[in-house]
Amino acid sequence: MLRTNTCGELRIEHINKTVTLCGWVQKSRDLGGMTFVDLRDRYGITQLAFNMDENKDMSDKARQLSREYVIQVTGTVIERSSKNKNNPTGDIEIKVSEIKILNTAITPPFTIEDETDGGDELRMKYRYLDLRRNIVRKNLELRHRLALETRNYLDKQNFIEVETPVLIKSTPEGARDFVVPSRMNKNQFYALPQSPQTFKQLLMVSGFDRYYQIVKCFRDEDLRADRQPEFTQIDCEMSFVEQEDILNTFEGLTRHLFKMVKGIDIPALPRMTYTDAMKYYGNDKPDTRFEMKLVDMKSVVGGKNFKVFDDAETVLAICAKGAAEYTRKQLDELTEWVKRPQLGATGLVYARHTAEGIKSSVDKFYDADALKKWSEACGSQPGDLILILAGGEDKTRKAMSELRLEMGTRLGLRDKNNYSCLWVVDFPLLEWNEGDPNLLASLAGRWHAKHHPFTSPKPEDIALLDSDPGKVRANAYDIVINGVEVGGGSIRIFNKDLQSRMFEVLGFTKEEAQKQFGFLMNAFEFGAPPHGGIAFGFDRLCSLFGGAESIRDFIAFPKNNSGRDMMIDSPSEISDEQLKELFIKTYQ
Amino acid sequence: MLRTNTCGELRIEHINKTVTLCGWVQKSRDLGGMTFVDLRDRYGITQLAFNMDENKDMSDKARQLSREYVIQVTGTVIERSSKNKNNPTGDIEIKVSEIKILNTAITPPFTIEDETDGGDELRMKYRYLDLRRNIVRKNLELRHRLALETRNYLDKQNFIEVETPVLIKSTPEGARDFVVPSRMNKNQFYALPQSPQTFKQLLMVSGFDRYYQIVKCFRDEDLRADRQPEFTQIDCEMSFVEQEDILNTFEGLTRHLFKMVKGIDIPALPRMTYTDAMKYYGNDKPDTRFEMKLVDMKSVVGGKNFKVFDDAETVLAICAKGAAEYTRKQLDELTEWVKRPQLGATGLVYARHTAEGIKSSVDKFYDADALKKWSEACGSQPGDLILILAGGEDKTRKAMSELRLEMGTRLGLRDKNNYSCLWVVDFPLLEWNEGDPNLLASLAGRWHAKHHPFTSPKPEDIALLDSDPGKVRANAYDIVINGVEVGGGSIRIFNKDLQSRMFEVLGFTKEEAQKQFGFLMNAFEFGAPPHGGIAFGFDRLCSLFGGAESIRDFIAFPKNNSGRDMMIDSPSEISDEQLKELFIKTYQ
């Protein structure tokens, strides 16, 4: 080894020890008689001391060190005269007797500090320097810890990690696949997996009983903010279980991770139906760190000749506790906020509930008695602010969900160090695809599997597949933490006929179904066990545990919103020789 | 849960317990009054007993169960009258009171037994049934265990697992890349990594200090037997180390794995130079379970007018201990064996050393005195057989290496439960590419990096880069177990100028080097630490620990020699819609 110790481990008990350290020059301070250099490595920072009087030579060398030089020093551990209580090595410093420059460094394009002056693009281009920042490295250490504890928990529960293939087959019924031309099989392509779904189900058919994998998945989407073309899942599947068993097992995992990684005991996870989530939160991933539930006001506000409410399909309210003192200016601003194209509300009605009574923005139509009914419906108290949106059902519910989250943020109810977890269950099996830009255009105007085509309908709803497919509920569930869908799964179909029927509902011809998923349906003929599973979005889970909004800083080498790796400048053109060997041509 | 217990856990102490089990019908035996069914799951086999007299109904149901039906049974644990000592559950059986068929099964195309009647192709097509076989599942359990213990060891040594990207950039200087057309970046391609080499080096530049990853890698090769287009590596890198530190760390990993997974204490690993490996074994991955070293006979056999030896560039012998009684027929057969086109020897000279003296196949040219010299050179004793090949250096050495291995096998010296590990060190830095079919044709007639372009030459050999590149030795090393290269690595170049020089030697123009590896060389300007690493072939390691020749049975869903997944029938054609979105065309 080029060192005897790391820069994070020397303490007062090491005094007089001769040590050799390696690392990067974080900064140096030349105080005339004394020169101090902070030496940094992954484990910490140790101060190097050079005394001009005692060793001029060494001091001169030290003065030539620039930031980010890589050096090796040998010296004696001595006690510091002025200790730094904020640094674990702050009691000591190294009196350096030898110094060797292992590598020089030009000036980095941004400072290697927690608060850097580098913008996003610059940091991504020089990601290898960005990763030197303590704060970014700690994110990846957290990720490592989460992976480790996930494996610890699942191993103890008899899960076996099995690697499934990355070069698989294109099944364009879901999001778009990335494809890989095969040189050995001319004009044929592999696809990269959007998830190991069919393989993990086949492992259940094989009797593997409990499978997991922390695995890369791929989706060729038009990248919204904070999506990555390649992402990581904790992918799991179990046999001989019912939904409740899976919820319990992975509630256990979630609690284990909070306990081991964050030191937090989280309570048992409540379960909420999809219907209730939509009703009370306008959202299938409700942020339950705060209440402020949506209240259906349609029957409360009618018959007062206020056309906006009378004509509206849906009228929804929330009661923002303690927000009655919101000024007119704040409320006008909030009104503009809900009118933005992303939400598209036509306006915002409000009522301040104060000690003096209730005053609304539509007092012309609603008298004190009417407003008292509003208050009763919303459960408002003096000091509260009632906010109301009206319009078409879907749009209004969605807008109200956003407004609720916005008010939660403004009122400080969404502390990222406070975690609220729940299961959302009983999702619809299908949704109508009006033309989702992340699906192939040829799939528009069809039913689309909300979860995926292998999700089991609830047995009692199977008859509805013919009469009213949109009403069929699935044995599907999501785990939601602080308004973020962290994982989702389902009990699977394990009967060939039901699986065929499902493909039919999704608009597959028999031939298409057989061509794409024949291997799975064939497998079901040889004795498939009842099974189900779940997948956690691992990048998202890491960012949530790290208390951050973006997943990007929890991925070592992320891509930007155009799917580019700015550091290695990829994707890039390939040579004609390569294209030729693959029997493909590009065109403009 | 659909069960209270697994099929592997019930013992004599569970007698009288009411249990519910789930699993597959392994077989059933109808003995008239009694019917017995073996129920199988991942954990074991439990016998179910049905008594015609006591419960005719249940017995009738049991008789309808075919192989591989999936059933759920409830019953009482009872003691068996005739116990089966070969089965951990063999002391008990279940007196069944309820039976439910969870799924039926058609007859599998081969038997689900350790010794199956299914051929390779059939087993691959129905891999999900093949994986039901105990013997195959155990391979994957071994793999899981090895991964787990690898992580345990490396975690304790402060390594951090970092996921590197799968969608990277094509760098066609190595083997062929698999490429992925980008929809969002028209006419550009990602490549799948042949290894995370540059990323792990960048992590060292970032100060991660100790990195590892168990990671999928991809290589578009014409598949030799037992190669897979996607394979798994244990990939590692360390900073501030010298070669010796890496050897010690990963010797530690190897010994840990043998200890924890096989219960074997292996001795410290000897180190052998590449030169010695070639000299004594004709091979850079010597099987050191047995001696039988190659002996250079050129100076011993000359001057006797035996033209074959006199004209030969190289004359090599091995001494096969205890093989003097080989019959003429066996020796003729061995002669045919070395003359096969794969080895291409022109003939085989032999000498039997018996109590009566030494008799050779070329006694015409060599008298007793001459043969005594042979014996002295080879160290033969009465009872031994000397085998000699002559011809051009490379061909003869390679053929003799093969003959040595063959004789080792024939003499029972290659017991797969006996492990001999070593390091081979001081590899040449470069080799001349005469036209390797696994490289792009445009790379022929150039120097090629034996390990990869980032491997550091030995400092004392750098001057030879100009005068005699083929003579430059690298700080590169392989770990070899039982004649198999299990892992390899090197100390890396960490200086921009030396890296540029290396690309130059490899025939890159400055522009090509900058375009493909500019990010790495730029990174080296910002303070790169001395670093080095290693990668283990994980599939190969698993097969070695499993005592098997082929890696295929240690991969859950392998591909065949044409790179096809026979089960899912991939690669396959994709739709015109998909091609169009990618702006590519295929052609014949």
Please tell me about this protein's structure:
- The structure is a homodimer of 588-residue chains.
- Chain A has 588 residues and is α+β, with helices and mostly antiparallel strands.
- Chain A folds into three domains: 12-103, OB fold (Dihydrolipoamide Acetyltransferase, E2P) (Beta Barrel), CATH 2.40.50; 185-272 and 423-540, Bira Bifunctional Protein, Domain 2 (BirA Bifunctional Protein, domain 2), CATH 3.30.930; 290-414, Gyrase A, domain 2 (2-Layer Sandwich).
- Chain A is 29% helix and 24% strand.
- The first copy, chain A, has an eight-stranded mixed β-sheet, sandwiched between helices.
- In chain A, a hairpin with a 2-residue loop joins strand 20 and strand 21 (484-491).
- In chain A, 46% of the residues are buried.
- At the A-B interface, strand 1, helix 3, helix 4, strand 6 and strand 7 of A face strand 1, helix 3, helix 4, strand 6 and strand 7 of B.
Task: Provide a concise account of the structure shown.
The structure is a homodimer. In chain A, about 30% of the residues lie in helices and about 25% in strands.
Q: In total, how many beta strands of chain A?
A: 23
Mean residue pLDDT of chain A: 95
The largest sheet of chain A is: 8 strands, mixed
Which value, in Å, is the CA radius of gyration of chain A? 30 Å
Q: Which segments of chain A are poorly predicted (pLDDT under 50) over 5 or more consecutive residues?
A: none
CATH architecture name of the largest domain in chain A: 2-Layer Sandwich
Strand content of chain A: 15-25%
Largest interface: A-B, 130 and 129 residues
CATH class of the largest domain in chain A: Alpha Beta
* Apparent shape of chain A: globular
Oligomer: homodimer
Task: Enter the CATH topology name of the largest domain in chain A.
Answer: BirA Bifunctional Protein, domain 2
Structural class category of chain A: alpha+beta
DSSP summary: helix tally of chain A = 17
